[in-house]
Amino acid sequence: MLHIKPPSIEKLAYVMGPYQDPIARVSPGETFQVSTKDAYGDRIVSANVRLEDVIQMPFVNPCTGPIFVEGAEAGDTLVVHIKDISIPRDFGASIIAPNFGGVCGTVWTRVLNEPLETRILIHPITPDGVIYDENLDISPIPIEPFYGTIGTAPLMEAISTLSPGFHGGNMDAADICPGNTVYLPVHHPGALLYLGDGHAAQGDAEVCGSAIEIPTTGTFSVEVIKGRATPTPRVENDEYLMSIGSARPMEDAARIAFYDLITWLSEEYGFDRMSVYQLCSHVARVRVANMVDTLYSIVAKFPKRYLLKS
Questions:
Q1: Cα–Cα distance between 186 and 228 in angstroms, integer?
Q2: By CB count within 10 A, which of 124, 196, 220, 264 is most buried?
Q3: Strands 31-36 and 181-185
Q4: What domains can be seen in the chain, in order of their start residue?
Q5: How far apart are CA 122 and CA 40, in angstroms?
Q6: Helix, strand, or coil here: 236?
Q7: What is the rounded CA–CA span in Å between residue 204 and residue 171?
Q8: pLDDT number for residue 58
Q9: Quick one: DSSP state of residue 161?
Q10: Number of H helices, E strands in the chain
Q11: Taking Cα atoms as reference points, which of 67, 44, 64 lies closest to residue 54?
């Protein structure tokens, strides 16, 4: 089985774009593995490190890629099946960083208060789950690994791996997990797939700006839907159809997600547009994936049990 490893530190991908040479090539139907570094480049190994010594913004959240998918062309949709995610070390890391997070001043939300103090935690990963803090007597957190960042090269921009958008990117949606299928737009030959930002666990919204960050080894296969590009990232599993919208303010992210979900259901599943719009008001579910990045991400979910039976 092909195993795609991260390139050297100086060649890690900190943007998703069409200007980097592919580091590997895969074919539709092929099963392959991809290893990724954590959001901090695997440089936080102790709570005693100085954050400024190991993180230099904006060089965080490195991805493995781009990966060239044979046969993918502009106007297609790349289908990524996530089969498994393993964690190659026994701890995760999380931080509170000055000027970053959902309930503090940031470079996008200016306030006159002093920045929050830096905080680093190392979280042991055990067979029973993730230990949040060995000094607190609380239950372990279930291990639910997923990719915070996945996407294809946008049409012309090179977009930071910290940012989500119509190409995918740093959506921090816990639905990008084993057993689920991700649909991404293709703008260039080979699609140019990027992966990274593995999380062992994360609450909805990722409110402090950091999940339990881990390196990963994931197992995947891909397909290509010819001649039809998904307008925004979509996800599917046995229970839900999901559309992901990214924008600021958060209600615009929700509008993008629901617009696409309603369009998907009306164009491909036989619903009248206004009928399924109203139905979504009764049965849809919403996940706030992140409220901390350059754009916020919302996942709108439609339960498959309400799909038309004929």
A1: 9
A2: 196
A3: unpaired
A4: 234-306 (3.10.28.20)
A5: 13
A6: strand
A7: 11
A8: 82
A9: T
A10: 3, 21
A11: 44
Residue type, 187: H
Q: How far apart are CA 60 and CA 211, in angstroms?
A: 14
CA 278 to chain CA centroid, Å, is 29
What pTM did the predictor assign?
0.96
- Residue 61's identity, in one-letter code, is N
Residue located via tokens 């290509």? 224
Distances (CA, A) of 48 to 95, 174, 307: 12, 29, 52
pLDDT along the chain (310 residues), means of 10: 92 95 97 97 94 85 97 98 98 94 91 93 98 96 98 96 98 98 98 98 97 98 97 98 98 98 98 98 98 97 95
Q: What is the DSSP code (8-state) at residue 209?
A: S
Q: Residue 310: its pLDDT value, please?
A: 75
Residue 5 DSSP symbol: -
> β-strand 2-4 against 31-36: which pairing, if any?
parallel
Write phi, then psi, for 303 (nearest 5 degrees): -65, 130
CB atoms within 10 A of CB 160: 20
Q: CA dihedral defined by 234, 235, 241, 243, rounded to 10 degrees?
A: -30
Instruction: Find where tokens 């139905």 sit.
Output: 279
Helix ranges restricted to H, the chain: 51-54, 250-268, 273-283
Question: Length of the chain in residues, anyone?
Answer: 310
Read off the tokens for 75.
Answer: 């106007």
135-40-170 Cα angle (round to 5): 110
